[in-house]
Amino acid sequence: MRRPLVAGNWKMNGDTESTISLVKGITDGRAEVTNAEVLICPPYILIPRAADALNGRDDISLGAQDLDINQNGAFTGQISASMLVDAGCKYVIVGHSERRAIYGESDQDVADKFKVAQQGGLTPVLCVGETLEERESGETEAVVARQIQAVIDVVGINQLDDAVIAYEPVWAIGTGKTATPEMAQEVHRFIRAMLAALNGDIAEKLRILYGGSMNAGNAESLIRMTDIDGGLIGGASLQAESFLAICMAAN
Length: 251
Ligand code: PEP
Hints:
The chain is of the alpha/beta class. The two termini are 13 Å apart. Helix content is 43%, strand content 15%. The chain contains 11 helices and 8 strands. β2, α2 (47-54) and β3 form a beta-alpha-beta unit. The protein has an 8-stranded parallel barrel, surrounded by 5 helices. Bound molecules: phosphoenolpyruvate. Phosphoenolpyruvate is lined by residues 9, 168, 173-174, 211-214, 232-236.
């Protein structure tokens, strides 16, 4: 049985005050979420603030939204895996569609980040998903397969044992348009079948999250689907109430 995971991607939002209050709100309601794993991914600079606000609690995991492929040195502005571990992170998002689209990250870049994340002791949350144009031209499966295969080519299928995949149709992110549960399930099933052809145990164990305008109102119908193991949440993770409602739906 896969343990559901609900991850909040705060993106470039928040400050010290809002971090303290959001973490407090989530910790206050966390006890009711008896089964699902809860993860928050603040902006880099707020990770230590969130860690302080968690005050040693380990029932809410910390993650980052990106990392650099280098360990240390002359890479101005970058953050490495070891720095994230040092700050208390267990997870790191790699290949978010905003990184791919705005910052030009290629499949190869994402695969390299996946590799250094694991080498540094972090569990990568690999984001994959098609644009609207790709969906409309029937390329959804080909795009998702290409993005996942790029990672497998670099690290090998066995490394998917300690990873999470988030299927995030680009057209659903931050738009209020959500894939229907059936549409999402179809892609999740495709991803699991693709991995099962390489390693059945890993495919069965791997958590595949849905992301894209998931909210308190639609979370339950999405997470109820067989191959949807939780959510990667953007906008709705910025309020404790909506984030916790999604956590409860995954529970
Ligand atoms: C995301 O950025 O990963 C995301 C799913 O955002 P939103 O929930 O706001 O669509």
